[in-house]
Hints:
Elements: E1 5-6, H1 16-22, E2 28-32, E3 35-38, H2 39-55, H3 62-86, H4 92-105, H5 111-122, H6 126-148, H7 155-164, E4 170-182, H8 188-203, H9 208-215, E5 226-231, H10 237-243, E6 255-257, E7 260-274, E8 277-288, H11 293-304, H12 309-316, H13 320-323, E9 328-333, H14 339-342, E10 357-358, E11 363-375, H15 378-407, E12 410-413
Parallel strand pairs: 1-12
Antiparallel strand pairs: 2-3, 2-12, 4-5, 4-7, 6-7, 8-9, 8-11, 10-11
Helix pairs in contact: 2-3, 3-6, 4-6, 7-15
Amino acid sequence: MKNLVLVWIVSAVISAPMAIADKKINSIIAVVNNDSISRLQAEREAANILKIARQNGNTLSFEEASRNALESLIAKRLQLQRARLLGIAIPDHAVERRLAELRAEWEIADGAALAQKVKERFGITMKKFREAVRDEITIQAVYYNEIFIQTPVSDEEVTHFLQTETDATQKRQYHLRHILIAADESNKVQKRTEIEALRARVIAGEDFASLAKTHSDGGNAANGGDLGARESDNIPTPFLTEAKNLRIGELSRIVETARGFHLLQLIDAKRSSLREGVDRIKLSHLFLPLEKKDFAEQLRKEIEVGGDFNALVQKHSIDSISVEKNGDLGWFNVHDLPDYFATTVPTVKEGGISPVIESPFGLHLVRVVEINKQELNAEKTQEWARGIVHERKALENRLEWLEQLRGSAHIIVLDPEYAGIINQENE
Length: 427
């Protein structure tokens, strides 16, 4: 079976004490094979989904968020169970390395400050956060071992990509919304009718995002089906084929995949500069508190007239990690720079200093230490194209792989409030 098995616990089985227990914050609301999901876990996940939706300017009910939360938690349990079956165990040093990366990314000086930020941002202890980080790394390892390295790419596929992609050396970005109606062989006709009806409603003037929230089986339903702005090499091939032929605001044809039927709406499309090469840039910075903007401007002027950047970093920067290396932040791909650096730093010449940059963490004076432009010759173009084809195929295979995991899973939803996330189906 391709669908999850839903076992309803009917009123004859649920006693009064159990009904009361269901309302307790630590009650079990679902079981995934031998693993349980508690109400507390689901409500925390739902709260996070609501927070992300608000940040993206979307609105949804707590019931909608709760259903999406259960979908996310079930998928996570299935992947972690697969990791245990494969014997994948993430060592402590890998977790600590990831925590160190997060401290650098969030501009946090030490472990105590990280614990405080985790408590404020996620409402959990560092012990729980470490477990979450370990789970994240584990799921990435499962994806790499089960899907990515198992996805072959032939020379013929690379050649076909270069021959058929319009301006293959041009980087494009598409911002899409998405509705998924999950289907298998047993209900394909019915589900096709459902998505055709949704498409007709959008054409008639109904809001795509609202319909996605209430009808989509996709993981982004809580955000109105918003897939975000993605580069063309990070979009599954069937979606990209449609996106290329859409105008802004236009609706796609119905797309059929192993998961079911999809509907897309193009929100925006952009074209970047030609891929003549990939700029890599080495940076260092002097980091100050937000309230010291005047002082930051003063230091910038001092550096511009010949002041010793390294000495000023040692004396004034509050980033204890980078201070030890004279403010060194290492190498970045220009396209991977944080948003607050992305609009300013690439315009600074090699050896130059940026204007004062404000981020959510403080003030930065960024020095461009070195710029490395990697030219794309024929060999590198082939390598680049192979990487795109590989990523696309792996993304498509992951969706099918997750469906297979679900198809062989035994899911019991104990709480009727959450049962709507899975279609009821009797064996």
